[in-house]
Amino acid sequence: MIGRDDNKLTVYLDKLLPKLVVAFLCALVVAQVVLFVDGTRQYISKTDKLEGEQLAVHRPGAAKEDTARTVLEPLQKLRKGKTLSFSVVSKEKRPNIAVRINNQVIGNFRDGAVQLTVYEQDYLEIDASGWREPVRFRVEADEGILLPISGVEFETVGDTLAVGQVKLK
Known about the structure:
Keywords: Membrane, Transmembrane, Transmembrane helix
Distance between the termini: 86 Å
Number of helices: 4
Transmembrane segments: 20-37
Structural class: alpha+beta
Helix content: 25-40%
Order of helices and strands: HHHHEEEEEEEEEE
Largest sheet: 4 strands, antiparallel
Strand order of the largest sheet: 4-1-6-8
Radius of gyration: 31 Å
Low-confidence stretches: none
Shape: rod-shaped
């Protein structure tokens, strides 16, 4: 009698298993098709939920730049940096022109020559958009800096001058 009940259960499971496999495969195909639609990707894919979201928590009212600088300061000390200097060589010696590294204002020529500590792949710009006269700048770089080349002069007239990326030896 016991063997007979086991036989019914086995027959039932043998019939049910292929149906479950087909159902799960259909569900998998439907889920993959739905992932092609951008609006539904965020609800199905955990990666797409996290992608683009800001993971760092910022206090309300706190400046985001200050937080980023505080976090990056210990890492900057570990990087190999070199000194770079920009000086004005035109007749106007102290124009109100800013120097930017990675789109952040680092120095200004109002105080004279600008000395910077630069790292590999930093992007340098001179923002003279508020100045309408021609201004010439000279770059003085440490020996370990390949680009920008030491002694090179740049000129700009009321525009943002892209000096370029820093390359170190």
